Structure formats: structure tokens, C-alpha cells
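call fold(seq) -> C-alpha cells
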Amino acid sequence: MRRWTEQDAPGQERLPWWWDATHYAIDVRLFADSDGDGVGDLDGLRNRLGYLELLGIDTVWLTGVAMTGVGPNIGEPRQAAAILESFEHLTTAAHDCDLRVTLDIGADISDLRQPRAQQELVRTLRFWTDRGVDGFRLALSRRGAYSGVPDAEGLDPETSRAIRAALAEESDRLIGSLVEEQQSSRGVWDVDFNRSLAEAEFEAGEIREAISKELAACREFGTRPGWLVSGRSTPRQVTRYGGGELGRARAQAMSLVTLALPGVVCIDSGEELGLPEVIDSDAENRPGELVGARVPMPWEGNEPPYGFSANPTSCLPVPADWRELTVEAQLESADSTLSLYRQELELKRTAPAEAGVGESSGTAGLFDEDTVEWYGAPSGCLAFRRGVGGVICALNTSEQRVPLPPGELLLSSTPLVDGQLPPNSAVWLTAN
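ret:
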């Protein structure tokens, strides 16, 4: 089975569309409500595709939509038919906007060793590709580990090859999986999404170690790295990094680090707004516990639910003090988290032309090469460069201002102070 590795370079073979794609993970129920029932839906998402174009992402990644089995697990036939019609309208509209659509698919490792389970998974994938889906992330559970059934072997390459062979005509589809650091089933699909950065503290040494381990593992297994800084199983990074302005500054700095790395990046919806986690203040006997699910997306206006729904009572309450965090408010502010993300994603698309490199000069663009060269850095800091002449990223997690690496400033998460990088900030530079 053909593997894409870091040795595959542009010009040698056509790289797959997902090679450096930026995914935007959406829980449909919490994104946008089109029918006023207080719950987000597919038509609501379709109505907001213009925002995703404006943001600059490549792929709409839908979570919680599909499970293993032929067809969607979405209720009685009439309801299923209506939802599938909305889904097909969504994929058509997304493709018209040059956006791809990917899905999470649940699968059990122990079941997938059985030919019947493999056939069922293949039928499920084909069911969704027939409806315009461009790729999948397999959420591989390990049921055997909790039932007394040995499961140390993970998903073997033979099983992967059998599934891939059955999908031979769908060779351009992305198939990735969410992996743990030592999970033996990693390396059998295109992309390994790893939670290491989503669990790392805001400390340069820990962040560098997480990046280095993942890059080494992907080289070993011949897969593309997939970077997550936030997700459903971890608090939003603004909260995780200390909350308030401190947490937001650190989250903005980490966005520059993540988007400078080679591989696939996944942005959790609301991450680009710098949203914090929401405290469940009403839960008895659980004071201060974090809500297990995200709350609805704040779009516009001055009071909840901020344009998410025409129904003032949404499926989950939106904080009353989020007026300045809405999409509308942040689009009007050049200093907002949303404006920073838009600049980052725009630079990833246009930096080669702006920097004067590309096909005309025979050199790679700032974000094209896959090697990472680490620089020496002051205590509490890290710095790396993409390939030869690629973008340079520096991060300061210390409490002191530090000098910048040599290079011309391209973008900073916070303004420089006397030409130096402040604490809790990051920069992109180009080589002089």
C-alpha cells in the first residue's frame, strides 16, 4: 500500500489535497440553528459557510454525525430522509465554496479484525462518500481493554490494507485516526491525530518534546502528523492556559506554533474566537466542574444566544458576557483573536508569493517543506524553522522579554516590546 511520507516532495508526485489542510471541527448541534428549535442543524451550518470561507479553512470536519453501520444512525426513516437531504445540500454547497467535508466514524478495533466488521465499515464509508464526503477520521475504541478481552495488538496493517483495497477507487479520500502515544494501531491510515499538544502545559520544553515525539513517530510509521490543541475531551486552551487575558494570549501564541508545523491542523470551532470553557454553576455537588460539551457559537448581537438561534432558549446557555467575543464584534477589531487566525491562515496560503519564492524561483514556499529544524533558544523559549528558508516560529513561555531569532517579522501574536518578544507570545519570521 502506497504511503505518503516526509520524503515525498512537491513536483515528484501530486500531493493529496489533505496534505497540509486546516480542518475546522464542528459539533453541528452547537454551531447554528436554522429552524428555531434551539438546536444547531445542518441547514444552519450551510447558511454559515460564508464565514468559513472568510476564515480561510480548508475542510469542514463534522463530529458526532456518523457511526459504523450502513447509513446514518439518526432515527426513523422519514426523519433520516430529511436529514440526508440536508446533508447532501450541505456537501454540495461546501464544494461550491471550495471546502471539503470530513466525518468522524466510530469503530471498534477488536471488531475490525473480523471480515464482516470490515465489510460493514467499508459500506459505511461508501455510503458517506456517495453523499459527497471527502474524508474520515476513525475514532478507534478499545472495547476489549475493558471487557477482559486482550487487545494489545491494536489494528493490524493487514486489516487496514483490506479496508483500503475495498476503497481503491476512493484513493483521494482522507482516512485518519485519533491515536494515543503508544497505541499500536497508529500508522495504518493517512494521518495520525494526536492529543499530545492538547494535553501539554504552556511550557516550551514540554511543547517541544510533544512536537518532536510526534514528528518522529510519523516518520517511523510513514503517516502525516495531525495536530490538535483543543478538543471535546480537553478544556478549551484559553481556560487550560490560565483563563482571562493570560489564557487568551497563550492560546493565540500556540495558534502560531501549531499552524507553523508540517502536517494537518484541526481547529475546534470557537477556538478562533478565543472562547473560554463554560463553568456549570448549577450542577449540584460538582462546584466549578467544566461543562462536558461546548456551548452554542456566538455570532452577533448584544445578548444570548447571540444569533445562534431565533429561539432565546438555546440547547445550552450562552454566557451573558460574551458580547465582545462574537464573530461580529471580532471581525470589527483588528486586534481580536479571530483577526489573528484570519491573518495566519491567509499567510499560509499566500506567503510563498509575498516572500518572492515559489515555482518561478525553483525554491519551496515558507510552509512547503516538511522538515523541522530546532534553534537554540533562551530558557523558557523554543524556535524552529520549516525546512531551508521556510517560516521561522519562536515561542516565549517565560516571564521575561527575549530577543528574536534572526529574520524579518511576518506576524506576531502580540505586539513586540522594544523589538523583543514579550512573555506568552509567539512570532513568525522569514529568513533575511
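Confidence is low (pLDDT under 50) at residues 1-12, 144-153, 283-292, 353-363.
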